[in-house]
Amino acid sequence: MAVLRALLLLATVTRVLANAKYTGTGSTGLYWDCCKPSCSWTEKGPWLTHPVQTCKKDDSPLNDFTVGSACGQGGTAFVCNNQQPWAVNDTFSYAFTSTFIPGASEFDWCCSCYELTFLNGGLEGKRMIVQASNTGYDDPKRTIFGVGAPGEKDYADGCMDRYNSDGGGFLGKEGRPLTKRSDCESLPKQLQQGCFWRFDWFLDAFKPNMTFQRVKCPKALTDITGCIRDDEDKFNASAGGKTNAASTPRGDSFGLLATSLVLAAFAFAFNV
């Protein structure tokens, strides 16, 4: 009887942990380092196509995914400049993120797509669908989606190398990160669009909180990265912020629910 109770508890915990990979709450941030994204390595996910597309210094596609990052690895791979955020309307945007979800791994989130719904920071009511193209290790105890948008001081070194810059355009006045929309004009032309988005749509919010839920990746994102996972069909699509997404893959959710019901029936039958 005690064993049945333990099994029922285990099934419940398993279901909760499985859900946590696909839905929950967390915070967002901003970054742009010009480096090869972590999800651009072949071993980082179950690809139906290939990992996240990388680019050469001149922003032409680099199709050899074994090439190392130009940031500290002696390689020649950079992030492609088209992997910047853009607004569809005043309340909905697309983007690519550096992602970390406690209890999950890169194999779970690399090239997965998520719908984010903002809770504060002046962004209430706004939503995004993002594709996880990179991994963030800033705080392994909490969920974070760092939106790739140019203009942050902390990640300027790789960009300065790419654009042969002394840092003036990337760091803003007195070495501080860019603090107003007009500062974006100091960046290379290729990076200004994402920087403008940061101020126009994201309102330069500081780490706003959000809810997240995995969804099937829209073509608007996968056409840019070329990255599609082999488990995409397990998730429902989301249309412009109106989500019908399952919080867990349909097959996984059914299996966990069935296990829980069977164990519950045993527990009831034997009065345990």
Automatic annotation (TrEMBL):
<dbReference type="InterPro" id="IPR052288">
    <property type="entry name" value="GH45_Enzymes"/>
</dbReference>
<keyword id="KW-0732">Signal</keyword>
<dbReference type="GO" id="GO:0030245">
    <property type="term" value="P:cellulose catabolic process"/>
</dbReference>
<feature type="domain" description="Glycosyl hydrolases family 45 active site">
    <location>
        <begin position="26"/>
        <end position="227"/>
    </location>
</feature>
<keyword id="KW-0136">Cellulose degradation</keyword>
<keyword id="KW-0624">Polysaccharide degradation</keyword>
<dbReference type="Pfam" id="PF02015">
    <property type="entry name" value="Glyco_hydro_45"/>
</dbReference>
<comment type="similarity">
    <text>Belongs to the glycosyl hydrolase 45 (cellulase K) family.</text>
</comment>
<dbReference type="GO" id="GO:0008810">
    <property type="term" value="F:cellulase activity"/>
</dbReference>
<protein>
    <recommendedName>
        <fullName>cellulase</fullName>
        <ecNumber>3.2.1.4</ecNumber>
    </recommendedName>
</protein>
<keyword id="KW-0378">Hydrolase</keyword>
<dbReference type="InterPro" id="IPR036908">
    <property type="entry name" value="RlpA-like_sf"/>
</dbReference>
<keyword id="KW-0326">Glycosidase</keyword>
<dbReference type="InterPro" id="IPR000334">
    <property type="entry name" value="Glyco_hydro_45"/>
</dbReference>
<feature type="signal peptide">
    <location>
        <begin position="1"/>
        <end position="18"/>
    </location>
</feature>
<keyword id="KW-0119">Carbohydrate metabolism</keyword>
